[in-house]
């Protein structure tokens, strides 16, 4: 699975992708994550070179009909996504011509372009599973400011998702959520594939050692059923606590 992130702030992903499970998955080439900055595709009057040599690359403009804040312009975002699609196509051609050696036959690339909008369809584990099975490449558009010119969705035919009924300052956090959730569905990313919570009877009420925790002179014990060794009773308890939650 290859993730391609269109963002003004690629450095935001460094620490999240650099360690733990995702870091190992990238190192072992189970997944890959690349970035493209829309600022690279700013042209015309929005690209200004100042007398001191500094270059300003404007990617936002005022919204038509007024309103607070600024809106990301369509052209830089569309060109950024197009550059990714071209990269995917070139990769396919290199495989076809034998210039890329793969241990197994690589399926034809199928890309999904995603834009994050608070009012859109909710992103769920079921969606993550579907994406992991249907696509080889996922392009994630991270909006900023008051959002992105709506023509981006119309031209690129994006799929829109929301990670919750709230507004964030940008699409970077939703992109991290999707990368994490989809990656978990890919064989080999988790050390134990069955450790995916959705694949077993799960409860948010879990315990570890010690058996008795003393805090402020009060004892907090692990439920006896978890110490019983009776697997049926334990699974029934997990199902019950899961439904209660």
What's the gist of this structure?
The chain has 245 residues and is α/β, with parallel strands linked by helices. The protein has 7 helices and 11 strands. It has helices at 14-18, 20-27, 74-96, 125-134, 151-156, 172-183, 231-244; strands at residues 2-6, 32-36, 47-49, 55-57, 60-61, 71-72, 111-122, 137-141, 159-162, 212-215, 218-221.
Number of domains: 2
Q: How is the quaternary structure best described?
A: single chain
Biggest β-sheet strands, sense, barrel: 5 strands, parallel
Q: What is the first-to-last residue Cα distance?
A: 33 Å
Give the low-pLDDT segments. none
Count of helical stretches: 7
Q: Which key terms come to mind for this protein?
A:
alpha/beta; globular; Alpha/beta knot; 7 helices; 5-stranded parallel beta sheet; single chain; 20% strand; 245 residues; 32% helix
Describe this entry's structure for a reader.
There is one protein chain. The protein is α/β, with parallel strands linked by helices. It folds into two domains: 2-194, Alpha/beta knot; 201-244. Helix content is 32%, strand content 20%. The chain has helices at residues 14-18, 20-27, 74-96, 125-134, 151-156, 172-183, 231-244, and strands spanning 2-6, 32-36, 47-49, 55-57, 60-61, 71-72, 111-122, 137-141, 159-162, 212-215, 218-221. The protein has a five-stranded parallel sheet with strand order 2-1-8-7-9, sandwiched between helices. Strands 3-4 form a two-stranded antiparallel ribbon. Strands 5-6 form a two-stranded antiparallel sheet. β3 and β4 form a beta hairpin. α4 packs across α6. The longest helix is centred in the middle third of the chain and has 23 residues, at 74-96. The chain is globular.
């Amino acid at each position: 699975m290859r993730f391609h992130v269109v963002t003004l702030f690629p450095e935001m992903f460094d620490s999240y992708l650099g360690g733990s499970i995702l870091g190992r998955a990238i190192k072992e080439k189970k997944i890959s994550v690349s970035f493209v900055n829309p600022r690279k595709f700013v042209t015309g009057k929005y690209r200004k070179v100042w007398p001191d040599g500094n270059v300003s690359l404007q990617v936002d403009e005022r919204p038509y009909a007024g309103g607070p804040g600024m809106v990301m312009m369509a052209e830089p975002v569309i060109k950024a996504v197009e550059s990714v699609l071209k990269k995917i196509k070139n990769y396919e051609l290199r495989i076809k011509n034998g210039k890329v050696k793969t241990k197994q036959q690589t399926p034809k690339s199928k890309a999904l372009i995603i834009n994050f909008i608070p009012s859109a369809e909710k992103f769920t584990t079921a969606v993550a599973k579907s994406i992991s099975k249907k696509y080889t490449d996922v392009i994630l558009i991270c909006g900023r400011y008051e959002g992105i010119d709506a023509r981006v969705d119309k031209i690129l035919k994006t799929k829109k998702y929301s990670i919750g009924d709230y507004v964030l300052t940008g699409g970077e956090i939703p992109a991290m959520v999707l990368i994490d959730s989809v990656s978990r569905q890919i064989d080999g990313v988790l050390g134990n594939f069955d450790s995916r919570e959705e694949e077993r009877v799960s409860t948010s009420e879990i315990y570890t050692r010690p058996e008795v925790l003393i805090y402020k002179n009060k004892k907090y014990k692990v439920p006896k059923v978890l110490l019983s060794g009776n697997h049926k009773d334990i699974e029934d308890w997990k199902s019950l606590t899961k439904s209660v939650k």
